[in-house]
Amino acid sequence: MGFSLFKTPKYKSSIELLVGQGNAITKSPADVLGLQQATPTVAETICNRSVAEDVIGRHNLRMSPQKLVDNLSVQQIPSTQLIRVSHRSTDPKTAQRLANTIGEVSPQRLSELQNGGAAITALMVQDAPLPQDPVSPNIARNTALALVLGLLLGTALALLLEFRSDRAPANPRPDEGQRVDREGQRARQQGTVGSLKTATTPRGWPLSLGIRI
C-alpha cells in the first residue's frame, strides 16, 4: 500500500473505431467473420511504430515511438465490428489528446490493408473523453489487500508468541525467591536459643551469663 501511495497515477482514455470494408458497413455474416478474424492484424497496425511516429510528429512530443506504443491497448468489442483503442498517460489531457489523434491517424494506415480484395476502413464513432479518475494504482484494492495481509500476519504472530510461552520453563521470579530467603532467615533467628554459661564471683555467688551462640 505504501508503494501505491507514492506511485504516479495513470489515466486512460479510449476511442471506438467502426471497422468495415470498402465504403460501407459490412453486413454479410461471412464478411463480418472475416473482419473479426482480421482483428489481430488491425490491432498490430494501430500499435505500429509508423502510427506512433505520426502521432508524436503532430504534437511535437519528446517521446519515443516505443514508449507511446507501450501505453496503447487495442481490443475488439465482442460480436461487433467495433474496436476500442485506449491510451494511458500520467496526464489525463494527454491521454485524451493522444487517443483522439490515434483515431485520426489509424484509418489512413488501415486503408492500406486488404481483406478479400477490399480495403479495410475505420471510422471513429466515439471520441476520447477526458478521464476523471486514475486507473492505476488501484488504492481501494491495494488497501483491502494490505488489511487482509496485516490480519494474517497479526494472527500468525499471536500464535507464535502463545507457542513460545507454552514452552518456556516456569522459573520463580527473583523477588519471590528473595522473600522466601528472608522469611527462612528470620525463622532460624527466632528458633535459635543461646546456651547459658555460669560463672562464680569471688565470694562464691553464681553469676549467670546469657551468651548466645
How would you characterize the overall build of this protein?
This protein has 213 residues and is an alpha+beta fold. It has a domain at 9-126: EIF_2_alpha (Alpha-Beta Plaits). Helices cover 49% and strands 21% of the residues. It has 8 helices and 7 strands. It has helices at 2-6, 29-37, 39-46, 49-59, 65-70, 92-110, 139-167, 174-191; strands at residues 11-21, 72-76, 82-89, 114-115, 118-126, 196-200, 206-210. The strands form 2 sheets. It has a 5-stranded antiparallel beta sheet. Strands 6-7 form a two-stranded antiparallel ribbon. Helix 4 packs across helix 6 (92-110). The chain is rod-shaped. The two termini are 77 Å apart. The relative contact order is 0.15. Mean pLDDT is 75; it is low at 193-197 and 207-213.
